[in-house]
Amino acid sequence: MLTRILHAIVAQPKVYDLVQFLAGASAMRRRMAARIAQLPAPQRIVDVGGGTGAGKEVLPPGCHYVCLDIDPQKIAGFVAKNPGELAIVADATRMPLPDASLDAVIFMFVAHHLTDDLLDDFVREAARVLRPTGSLVFADPLWAPRRWPGRILWRYDRGSHPRTPDRLREALSKHFDIRHWDRFAVWHAYVLAVATPRDRRV
């Protein structure tokens, strides 16, 4: 009962942003910003599972940013903060975007909400929408049971599919070549990866 109440509270856009901050999202975004800055001038970027659009903070000026999330409430929070910006309510595994149309896909703190089959579907879909020289920038907390802060966070997280780094690497490697792989810890242990689509690589 308590867990359900907490989930309902966290679904509110402002509370969601606060919880993301407390869980270490700001530290992750700083690392992501450094990696994205090294990409070859990304112009068109979609933030998949972008929530209220905090991923926009990691992008260099001049990027065309799209926030995509399955939750209309979070997209409403993004639109309220960013009037006139493009937002899409859609499923990460069936993005309404053309083939090879994006320079980068951001996928931050979403994978643990997906079953193994859905994660595989997303990885395939990300490879489809990226240009051959595009990049997937992927970040997720890890299943590391020896870390007690992480165990507490996992207890109340709505995501019920925490994974080991080996499982995440295996999932990404089905359609991507991994160019960067970084593990670090705040409260959770995390992985940050940058990968290029294999099937259409040039």
What's the CATH first level?
A: Alpha Beta
Mean of residue pLDDT values: 82
The spatial strand order of the largest sheet comes to 3-2-1-4-5-7-6
End-to-end separation: 52 Å
Q: How many structural domains?
A: 1
Radius of gyration of CA atoms, rounded to a whole number? 16 Å
- In the CATH hierarchy, the architecture is 3-Layer(aba) Sandwich
The parts where pLDDT drops under 50 for at least 5 residues are: 1-19
Q: Give the biggest beta sheet.
A: 7 strands, mixed
Sequence of secondary-structure elements? HHHEEHEEHEHHEE
Number of helices: 7
CATH superfamily: Vaccinia Virus protein VP39
Strand fraction equals 25-35%
What is the strand tally?
A: 7
Q: Fill in the CATH topology.
A: Rossmann fold
Shape descriptor reads globular
SSE topology sketch:
Elements: H1 2-10, H2 13-22, H3 25-36, E1 44-48, E2 64-69, H4 72-81, E3 86-89, E4 102-108, H5 116-129, E5 130-141, H6 148-156, H7 165-173, E6 176-185, E7 189-197
Parallel strand pairs: 1-2, 1-4, 2-3, 4-5
Antiparallel strand pairs: 5-7, 6-7
Task: Report on this structure.
With 202 residues, the chain is of the alpha/beta class. The protein has a single domain, classed as Rossmann fold. It has 7 helices and 7 strands; from the N terminus they run αααββαββαβααββ. The protein has a 7-stranded mixed sheet, sandwiched between helices. The N and C termini lie far apart (52 Å). Mean pLDDT is 82; it is low at 1-19.
Structure keywords:
single chain, 202 residues, Rossmann fold, seven-stranded mixed sheet, 7 helices, 36% helix, globular
In a nutshell, what does this entry contain?
The protein is α/β, with parallel strands linked by helices and 202 residues long. Helices cover 36% and strands 26% of the residues. The protein contains 7 helices and 7 strands, in the order αααββαββαβααββ.
